[in-house]
Amino acid sequence: MLTKAKWLEFLDTMDDMYPDAHCELVHDNPFELTIATLLSAQCTDVLVNKVTKDLFQKYKTPQDYLNVSLEELQNDIRSIGLYRNKAKNIQLLCERILAEYDGEIPASREELVTLPGVGRKTANVVLSVAFDVPAMAVDTHVERVTKRLGLCRWKDNVLEVEETIMKKTPIERWSRAHHQIIFFGRYHCKAQNPGCEKCPLLADCREGQKRLKKGLVKV
Ligand code: SF4
Could you say which cofactors this protein requires (predicted)? Predict the structure, then answer.
């Protein structure tokens, strides 16, 4: 397993590579971020932003989402995967926050994960980005990068990955590190064809070294 010191070195490198890493889901408030994150499940941020550009013009409040039929909302997000279920969850979520939270998104994980369509990852994104509460949201990029680098075990589930990262990363770096690991995974250590040849972490990366031995990486 990777030592904490080596992991912090890796984070420093990602910090150098992506000093401006940030949440790429366009939003203006916690409510819009919650909707955008819910829509982003198994879907790219680029596509979500394309859809929310018009969506957030048409629907500004939770009540707006309830003033239309389910079919109309489904139609407005139909280019997004799982749109039928997502539209249903958005309307249920709007009903809940109107009934229980005065139309506002609650700022605690315990409450967030009880909202329709909001899992632990979405809750962590909303906490960290909208409310500045330290949290580590594990998406596909975070999971892949931390496993390739050897911080986490291949067999670890998402919760174990989250706990390991939080244990090995100082709390004041969680938010910044979270976005930098995502950028590193999204733009450099991609699922297909990771950029091992030009990777500053190659010498210490277990996946990179494996690829090197197999002749998949030419340096
Ligand atoms: Fe990813 Fe390759 Fe770099 Fe390892 S060496 S972090 S697999 S790009």
Answer: [4Fe-4S] cluster
